[in-house]
Amino acid sequence: MTNANDNRNLLQKLLSRASDIHPRETRATLTAFGLVLLLMASYYILRPVRDAMASDWTDAEVSWLWTFTFIFSFIAVSLYGTAVTRIRFKRLVPSVYGFFALSFLLFYAGTQLLANPILVDKSFYVWVSLFSLFHISVFWSFMADTFSKPQSLRLFGFIGAGASIGGLIGPLLARFLVSNLGGENLMLLAAALIVIALPFVIRLQHIKQSDLDNEEVEVVQPDMEYIGGNPLAGFSDFLQSPYLLGIGLFIFLYTALSSFVYFELKNLLADYDRNIRTQIWANMDFVVNSLTVVVGMFATGRIAKRFGLSFTLALVPVLIAAGMLLLAIAPLVSVVVCVQVARRAGNYAITRPAREMLFTAVSRETRFKTKPVIDIVVYRGGDMLNAWLFTALTQGLGLGLGAVAAVGAAIASLWAFTGVYLGRQFNAMNPTDTDPGEKLNS
Fold this sequence. Notes:
Layout: H1 2-19, H2 26-54, H3 59-86, H4 89-113, H5 117-144, H6 149-181, H7 183-210, H8 233-240, H9 242-268, H10 274-307, H11 309-329, H12 333-357, H13 364-396, H14 401-428, H15 436-441
Helix pairs in contact: 2-5, 2-6, 2-7, 2-10, 3-5, 3-13, 4-5, 4-7, 5-13, 6-7, 6-10, 6-12, 8-9, 8-13, 9-12, 9-13, 9-14, 10-11, 10-12, 11-12, 11-14
């Protein structure tokens, strides 16, 4: 028993030094860490399979697929809003993840039974693109509903590192298994990891009530009942709130940069066969997530706590603006790859956790109804519009990589200013918040 206590004390000391995690937050933080690790591992097993398909299609075909993704995202978020009003809260998150696990089993069955592989491939591409945002949006809604605003500044970077470790495991599994199993069988593995994640959701719901003492985040029994309200309230709330519109603009500008870089890389990989492309995308994911783990676990929380949310939100956009200017001057493939790695690693380690902190300042209904509108509909709408913009700039106007990069630098600068605005708005909402972790630690 003494050894067990000593081990727990040692773990607590390490966590406290690494990310300022207080004793009664440890179980909740590690459970959340494990949950997002499993979820992201499942996605990153599927991501290189999806992206390998894209090089078989033209820019216009992919733009159409992104358009269909936006349309299906709008429908899915509307249906999800209905589920939020009618499903008991404690069953909501497990139901979403169980549904996606079943969907990948059905896609696997489709690859074995249907005779038209192109239709299955394109449907899978759209569905995984929807899943890529939906599962993580629901996760961060869950986190914003579990931890308080001050706790989010300290803990979300560490929790986000769990996503990056999942992002390391997933590509490795995809890379080493695709040659022997094929892409279709990876769908079964991804579904299995999602099922394994379900007990983590249930445990975290219990820990929220037993371990945490957040005045902002209610933990009374009605919290586990129905959210209720208008199923489509998320759309109207988004349009009526300058704060939420600002978050939407922040995401839209991010998608502009990510879309431009994605299309360039897609075109560069067109000469390789699909399995080789899968391995290349998996290798890039591995490098990005390796960088993300270190920054997320040891730096993000401390940056946000010491310098504030405005600085944290604007940091990566400023760096990417500089990278895009460099790319405009030296439009080389190696620079494109470096910008892509820096953009994604910076987003996962710093920008994404900081963006999720913004939702700790809003109501539960906003977290579960409006947040998916922003995370999924606005994001995919940005993908769609920016995909067609890239196609217009390159195939329509004939612009090269350097000219497109100069446009990207201007977009990144606006992205940074939007981050500063959002950070100031966040601070203005309930500026006297106290940290429950400090209270529990006293």
